[in-house]
Amino acid sequence: MNSWQISRRTMLRGVGAALALPLLDLMTPLAADEPEPALPKFRPTRHPTRMLMMNLPNGTYHKEWEPKTPGPLGELPPMLVPLQAHVGDITLLSNLWNQSSTVDTIGHFCNEANFFTGVAAKKTTGADVNVGGVSMDQVVARCTGALTRFPSLHLNLQAPVGGADTGWARMYGNQLSWSSPTTPVPNEVDPKRAFDRLFRTPGQKPSASGVPLSQEDRTSVLDYVRTDANALKRRAGIADQRKLDEYLTAVRDVERQLDREMKELAKERRVDPAATRAVARFAENLSDSGTVANGGQYSQQVGRDHTRRTRLMLDLIVLGFWTDSTRVATFMFGNERNDINYSFIDGVKGTHHEVSHYNDPAKLAQYRKINLWHAEQVAYVLGKMKEIKETNGGSLLDNSLVFWGGTLSDGNTHGKENLPIMLAGRGGGVIKPGRFIAMPRRTPLCNLYLSMFQAMGVQAESFADSTGIIRELTA
Predict the structure, then answer these.
(1) How far apart are CA 258 and CA 96, in angstroms?
(2) Contact 150/325 with Cβ under 8 angstroms?
């Protein structure tokens, strides 16, 4: 018997790289492995279709979010005025709700945990978190990931927050994306590291074309995890050492084979030259990107303007889409119930969650300004995507689905019905935007997700509590 054991989920890690392990003798069933969910049928779209999912933390001032009458959009309501230039590219939907979030009368954290899963999360203050299912972005990423270098990209303006609140683990509020009911997909909070991951290995020039660097130019993943692997071999038995050596040799062989294939792909790949130039410009502008400081508490610094860092992250997502490095991305404007300091906005003195409970006119004025700042950043990314023209004659925005929404209808009341939901883009021609669609009361939010699946080529028949697609999106 071994004096120690490791879980089947243990990986070799080093310098941001991770490598799964084969089944070894010292792996005993410390915990039951979760079965891999079956993938829905997938039919790639004729032209790459992308999906960006963004959150709206701490709700909004809902009285000034929703248009008064359904139909074509004209003058947008006050909370959405910064998006007026894109009125023909957005769709607003009312009366969507996420029934799974009603397990708690307050629960900021349970709302965020199941925002993209549509399944009730386990109420816990410990490490035994469970959101009940895989998030919708990961369903799409598992289908489209075989077509791109990276299945998905996940960025957050704010570092993770630990502890518990109102009976819920605060980590629930740090995550939108879950690869399994118990496994969150980590967010990157530093645009420099995110850029390196997409376009270069540390200390090397970016692969601006979106094609991985050749074996001569890049470092093997095995070099990154060598220390971890050697430590494991010293503690493993003879049989496991042999298995591990055979496995690592096989990994190296696969790397070399992939390098040969990537060289051939590089000869045929047609990347927009403008995208190559944009990647180079982005790399030059990263010198003052607002990297994480003070133990990850960048977002709490009083007076720190978050606009530049936010837009760098949004620019990075656009570059990832433009070079077809990935087709799925999530961006968090901070964790749910966050205390990000927005005093850089004229007239704002409090933190986000503090002023979301607007029990006096002064707080309401600050809350409105914070929400308008968020709308300005959404307008920024839509504008960037709209400027990029693609080979099928449409723009990057036309060939995308951009979701922006909140888990609370209003930050002050914590309402969980009639959520603030916006969808931008045409999804490659599937969606007809420029309208406000009033859905029946308590229409499942997952109906929208199911509709987005179909635009992305994911032929799922249902998702969580969905009851069907939203046909009005295409009518």
Answers:
(1) 45
(2) yes
Residue-wise pLDDT for 51-83, tens only, equals: 999 999 998 999 999 999 999 999 999 999 999
Task: Assign 10 a pLDDT band (cuts: 50, 70, 90).
Answer: confident
Under 8 Å between Cβ of 89 and 110: no
Helix, strand or coil, per DSSP, at residue 236: coil
The Cβ of residue 16 has, within 10 Å, a number of other Cβ atoms equal to: 12
Helix, coil or strand: residue 161: coil
Is the separation of the CB atoms in 12 and 19 below 8 Å? yes
Per-domain residue ranges of the chain: 18-47+212-268, 48-210+272-473
Q: Any idea which architecture 48-210+272-473 has in CATH?
A: 3-Layer(aba) Sandwich (3.40)
> CA distances (Å), 46 to each of 36, 399, 465, in order?
28, 11, 29
* Residue 193: Cβ within 10 Å count: 15
Contacts of 396 (CB under 8 A, 6+ apart): 50, 318, 321, 322, 385, 386, 388, 389, 390
DSSP 11-39: EEEETTEEEE----TTB--SSPPPPPPPP
Cα separation values, 193 from 97, 190, 210, 286, 427, Å:
35, 6, 16, 10, 29
Residue 269 and residue 209 in contact, taking contact as beta carbons nearer than 8 Å: yes
| pLDDT tier for residue 288 given thresholds of 50, 70 and 90 | low
Q: In this structure, which amino acid lies at residue 457? A: G
C-alpha pair distances (Å), 67 with each of 72, 116, 161, 169:
10, 25, 35, 36
- Total residues belonging to the chain: 475
